[in-house]
Design brief:
With 242 residues, this protein is mainly alpha-helical. 48% of the residues lie in helices and 4% in strands.
Amino acid sequence: MEPEDLDAVFIEDHWIKNNKRFHNVPLCVHDALETRLKIPDIILQKFPSPQLSVIELLNAQLPRISTEIISTKPHTWFSEEAASPTATDQLWNWPTPSKDILDSLLSAVGQAWFDGATSIIDQRLNQSTSIRFPLWVFTFWKDVMRYTAICQSWKNAVSWLEHEKQQITTNLSVIQEAETMMLSLLPGCCPMFYCRNTTQIEQLARFLGTRWLATDHIDMLMEKLQKDLSKKQSVHSSTNPQ
């Protein structure tokens, strides 16, 4: 095979366990690694559905995220042995490592894969030495962190609503009914059409609180205002033709 062909098509024997460095590699190599890190559909289906309401999302069960600090080097986590057959059965009860640990492992996974790694051994727990997880567990843990952050945003919003209700003396039952309806119908995590479809519905949670709004929130408000004004102008033009 010609050298230029190696940049277009991933040939495993050329890259894996062949004394290669994971640095400035061709796109086909990145694509091959991304495939190795892709979560199987059967596991993805167990994550909260985008159709879940805020209340349903807050009741979803996710692995906890640990905060312990460990001194082991990232390369000690990787193994050339195949993943344990029962590893995926334990994912949802297994603590997700901290963001710092996960970031360091993700930085090392490319080279470890080149060196022949096909699984990882969690070095945080003594009993984990007999359990080897597939490499895509890194992506699984990233998704756990993402959903946990989304849930925390909505928890903060609900907590703020509860605090604000304590200050209300009139029409409390009406407000409570509106709140319950909103949290029961509003999806907890799905894309929105604002800002050219680049926003997520969980960003709305920040409107319910005292934290500073981000640029996306301001852009959403301006876009909503612009659409409302355009709609009013259209109605005015149709009812008051010149």
